[in-house]
Each structure stands twice: as C-alpha cells, then as structure tokens.
Amino acid sequence: MKKILFYTSYVLFFVIAFTIYAIAGCKNNHSGYPYEEISYPTPNIEPDTLNDVQGVVLHHTAIQTAKKALKTLSSPEKKVSTHVVIDYDGTRYIMAAPTDVTWHAGRSILGDREDCNFFTIGIEFQGNTLEKPLTTDQINSAIEYLLPLIRQYRIPMENIVTHEMVRKAYKEKYPDSKVYDKCDITQTEYHRFIKALEKEMDSH
After folding, report:
1. Cα–Cα distance between 128 and 57 in angstroms, integer?
2. The predicted structure's pLDDT at residue 179
3. Residue 33: which pLDDT band, with cuts at 50, 70 and 90?
C-alpha cells in the first residue's frame, strides 16, 4: 500500500510539473516573442519599391477598436497603411514587411529627407493618447518588434519620431503647403516610450 501511494505521488508530481512547464512554454511561444503576432496584410503598399529603412514613425490610430483601424488601414479607398498595429494587450497585427513602403507619413521630413514613407517603418498604437496613455503591453510589444530592426538597419535613436514631428518639419520648410494638423501620439507618451526603449537597449 505504501509503495502504491509513493508511486502515485511520484507520478502526480511529474504530471503537475510538466503541466506548469507546458503552460509557461505556450505563453512565450509566439514566433520567439511573448506577444502574439497576427498577419493582417494590407494591399496599400508602394508597388515595386523597397523601403530604405532609416527611421521609425510612431502613430496612434484614434479609432475606437483595432478591428476598425485594421479595416481602415487595409482599405484601397482610404489609401493609408502602416507596417504594424499594436493593440492594448500587446498583440501585434503585421500589415506589411519592413522592406515594404507603406502609406503612413504623408508629406513629411526627417532630417534632410522628404517623403518618410520611403525610408521609415510605421507603427500604429491602438487608441488615442490624448484620451488614454499607452499601455505597458503596447510599449513592451513595440520594443520587442523594434529591437531586431534597430540592430539590423542601424536605426539611430534620433530617427525614432512621431508623425507630428515629421509633419511639423515639412510645414516649417513649406509654410504655404496644405498640410493639416491631426490628432497624433502625444509628446508625453512619445518620451515615455523612448525612455523605455533606451532602458531596454542599455540592458542588452
């Protein structure tokens, strides 16, 4: 009887241990990231053109839900797009490869180059940062997405900017141009993101 109880306890211990290990493994099994990536390709990309990746432009969707944002960013009629949308829980919707040119920046200047679509990656955070700050999951997910790209393309920190910043630079160079102000990621949330990104980069 004692032997039976011993072996039963032994087997039960390993079943519980294996279950815990399996659950932990599943939580981190998203193409190498702890945040889920879902492919949601947009048709709105520049044909036969490679993105000369040198920077990143941050946006927020200012649309009620990620589902509606994805619909807008993949509508041929809207003629707008991005590379990735990051939902509140950190889920990443991959809309285009980094080498694709998407239509996210419009009339814009970064450094001494115009037309940021052709040399930047567009990141859309779900939500409106004028009403609600970025979630920790959104920040962490964006960092995980960006770190390999920053290393691969040697993107300098000063080239990670907001849509407002590159649009403002264009308006300063062309004051008579019709470039309208729009709701965009706030400077407070931008600096919060940059601080978290720099901290993560320093730790590697």
Report:
1. 16
2. 79
3. low
Residue listed under structure tokens 């939580």: 27
Listed residue (159, 124, 143) closest to 52, CA to CA: 159
pLDDT band at 124 (very low <50, low <70, confident <90, very high): very high
Contacts of 134 (CB under 8 A, 6+ apart): 125, 127, 189, 192, 193
Tokens of 124: 């859309």
Predicted confidence (pLDDT) at residue 26 exceeds the cutoff of 90: no
* pLDDT at residue 12 is higher than 70: no
Q: Which of 14-23, 30-39, 109-118, 186-195 has the lowest mean pLDDT?
A: 14-23
List the structure tokens of 133: 């700050």
Evaluate whether 80 touches 163 at the Cβ level (below 8 Å): no
User: Residue holding tokens 């998407």?
Assistant: 102
Task: Answer for the pair 34, 27: CB distance below 8 angstroms, yes or no.
Answer: yes
Distance from CA of residue 13 to its chain's centroid?
41
